[in-house]
Amino acid sequence: MDEGTVGVVLALCVACIAFVGWLIEKNSRRIEEQIRKSVYILEESTHKDWPDFEELREGLEDLIAETVGSMRTPQLADHLGAMAQQFFQMKMAKQMQEMGTLLPSSTDHIEEP
Asked: What are 35-85's pLDDT values in tens digits?
């Protein structure tokens, strides 16, 4: 091959690479424009009804006031019921331990097979 042919081949290669680069740039701009249009359509179709922060604060205050307002102080019956519950739980735990249905305690020795 002589120098002229090599020059022509190199020129064609550079032209092809430039053409491919131009096609990539053209398609990327077209895709960017389609993305912008899609984003604009999505933004227009969504509702931007953000609640006012004052409304949120008032609603939260009302919820707290309602919750605290529905609470009551413990009565004598509540305390007696808790004491009875604790007594019966202790009694039942002792009975279960006597029957041997509880897990081994730290004082029990586990025999190895």
From this structure: 999 999 888 877 667 777 888 889 899 999 888 888 888 888 889 999 999
Tokens of 27: 């398609």
CA pair distance 77, 93, nearest whole angstrom: 24
Q: What pTM does this model have?
A: 0.38
d(CA 32, CA 18): 21
**From residue 58, how far is each of 2, 26, 62, 70, 71 by CA, in Å?**
87, 54, 6, 18, 20
| DSSP one-letter code for 107 | T
Taking the domains of the chain in order of start, what are their residue ranges? 1-47
> 75 by DSSP, 3-state: which?
coil
In terms of C-beta distances under 8 Å and separation of at least 24 residues, what long-range contacts does 45-48 make, across chains too?
none
